[in-house]
Specification:
Blueprint: E1 4-8, H1 17-27, E2 34-38, H2 40-49, H3 54-64, H4 75-86, E3 96-98, H5 101-110, E4 123-129, E5 134-139, E6 149-151, H6 156-163, E7 168-170, E8 173-175, E9 178-182, H7 184-187, H8 192-196, E10 201-205, H9 219-242, E11 245-247, H10 262-283
Helix pairs in contact: 1-3, 1-10, 2-6, 5-6
Length: about 290
């Protein structure tokens, strides 16, 4: 059996589809040898690597977690930013509309404060230092990738917070002097890291295959869609070369606060993976006869 590397892509709340992907793999007893994640994908990669099953994730999302647990709007920063705009002498800037502290605390609590080195399987979480434009890889493996910064000493919650910092939406996460923003800027579907960690077969989950038919409004939605368009279009080449299979859940655009759509997003992930699971098992040599 080939070792399976699962690369979970970014896409905001559409990332809940990863739960459905993981559930089908669990149902079919297909072992995951290693995980990588960017942005929303980093959340579920970290949770799974910490020991939380896909069905436990679904229970948490549907019955235990509320919007208030992960969204903390930066009202004070917004007021200060407006003051700085209208009063140029006031040296204040607005770095993001969401502080991100609640999300980091939520991941810390769910993973019980585990670090990268506590992960049960090889793991890579992608972020970007906005000051230098360098890719930052949080990992428990000994890997090298060009000019990327490799970080092995960090909490899972810190890595996730750094990877999910959507520019202009979340306040960048300061980490040892680096200003960390969304990993999707450098690697929206982190397939390259799977090869660096030694995966023999790479399954990529791309949340970006959709048709943009609905109008967007508001700075968060506009920035999110802009980044999605740019990031997914630039990731095609890497996926073509390094992914053995790509799954597209095909979830339509969804806001960060539309948690009421969690069930249907998870089901979309299940449907997409179920269509591919026999092919995957064949290619991993799991089917008998």
């Amino acid at each position: 059996m080939k070792s399976l590397g699962l690369a979970l892509g970014g896409g905001g709340l559409k990332g809940l589809a990863h739960i459905g992907i993981l559930e089908i793999l669990e149902d079919e007893h297909i072992p995951i040898s290693q995980l990588s994640g960017s942005s929303a994908g980093s959340i579920f990669a970290a949770l799974y690597a910490s020991g939380i099953s896909a069905y436990e994730m679904e229970k948490l999302v549907l019955h235990e977690i509320s919007i208030r647990d992960y969204l903390d709007y930066n009202f004070a920063g917004l007021i200060k930013g407006l003051l700085g705009f209208f009063l140029p002498a006031v040296p204040v800037t607005l770095d993001g509309l969401i502080k991100g502290n609640k999300l980091e605390k939520l991941i810390y609590d769910l993973t019980e404060g585990k670090s990268l080195l506590d992960s049960r399987i090889p793991l890579a979480i992608i972020s970007c230092d906005i000051n230098t434009a360098r890719k930052v890889i949080f990992t428990n493996q000994e890997i090298e990738e060009g000019s990327s910064v490799i970080i092995r000493n960090a909490l899972l919650s810190e890595a996730v917070r750094c990877s999910t910092s959507i520019p202009a939406t979340f306040v960048p996460r300061d980490f040892h002097g680096m200003q960390m923003v969304d990993g999707g800027i450098k690697d929206i579907v982190p397939v390259i890291e799977q090869k660096l960690m030694g995966a023999e077969y790479v399954l990529a989950v791309n949340l970006g295959q959709e048709t943009y038919q609905e109008k967007v409004s508001g700075i968060i939605d506009i920035v999110s869609r802009t980044l999605n368009i740019l990031s997914y279009e630039t990731s095609d080449t890497a996926e073509e070369f390094f992914a053995d299979m790509i799954v597209y859940p095909g979830v339509e655009e969804v806001r960060l606060d539309e948690l009421d759509k969690a069930g249907q997003i998870i089901r979309a992930g299940r449907r997409a993976m179920r269509k591919k699971v026999d092919e995957l098992k064949n290619e991993l040599h799991l089917l008998q006869g």
